[in-house]
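Hello Y.,

Per our agreement to keep a running log of every chain we model this quarter, I'm adding this entry. I've kept the format consistent with earlier entries: sequence first, then predicted structure.
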Amino acid sequence: MPSVPTTWRDLSDPALSADPYPALAADRARGAVLRHEPSGAWWVLGHAAVTTAQRDRRLGRVWRDREPRELLEPFNLLHRHQMMENEPPEHTRLRRPVAGAFARGHVERLRPRVRELATGLLDAVAGEDFDLVHDYAEPLPVLVIAELLGVPSTHADDLRLWSQAIVRMYEPGSGDPDGPVVRAAVAAATDFADLVADLADERRRRPAEDLITDLVATQLSREEVVAAVVLLLNAGHEASVNVFGNGAVAMLRAGLRPGDDVPACVEEMLRFDAALQLFERTALADLEIAGVPVTEGERVALLLGAANRDPAVFEEPDRFDVARAVNPHVAFGVGVHFCLGAPLARMELAEAVGLLWQRFPDLALAGEPVSRGTFVLRGHSSVPVTAQPS
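Predicted structure for the entry above:
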């Protein structure tokens, strides 16, 4: 077979973090699957190839402890027991009790509370210029997921700081054991786990109407409950913050408003500028992806943002269409690792988007948004806006 094209993209390049899509489009045009020479992994960029690969059970999540293990044990311990880092049957065992807790109606029960929290945040900035991330997009999902799980809101600031420190480790070049990223992640993982373990012990003694209570009543071990809660707290707000911020910036730059179909607008926010750009898996057996042979043990990086801009699937993929009718994006993943919190994220985003533009129909950028400067988890740290209430 002909040789597979290669790419040398530097994922730590600030220009790529600022706007990855032209580069990803150029790579995708050369093939649905490329060899990424700097990492030695296969890059999967086409929508069909990404979708197929996510459903292929010969590709799985294989957790490898970060080195040095002794230093990074608090970080490794949280990930070693997470459902996202395991495959069936272990993944099934870890996911089932969490899915069962979600199915008991916790998400829809929160909708009035989401509206109340969002309204309060908007009331606080009415008549002022404000930071859309710091004052609205960031605090809302933190408060929501904390309330769902049963974590006191007084820890909201801690949760956000801990989450940011932990997920920074997912970026390329973050693993210097003497660097500030590793030190911050270890401290955050330690403090985060201690808080959750204390809350879990309290719920065993005094059950409440929350998800931690549901989880401690299952067969999960203490370490598994802690890992599950930390994953839900991180994933339950990290993606929502970045989807909202990325989507809002795209809309404001284009002078767009949500329109009558807010859920359709939310789906376009999820597609247009993906919060999670890269999701890695490992070949558990020899296989082919889009005709490219992959050997057991090789790493495969699914480029979700590139798949969501594939012109073979999406008409005018680089245009934000608030009413896009056909939108099979892969922002939540596909297959066994499909995001468990997707219903919560969709509900929360729809409420947040609808209320924001209802209150501030003339919302506009008041300055240049500030990127987080990261590629894997893409987002903004600041989005200054100006608005007057309707």
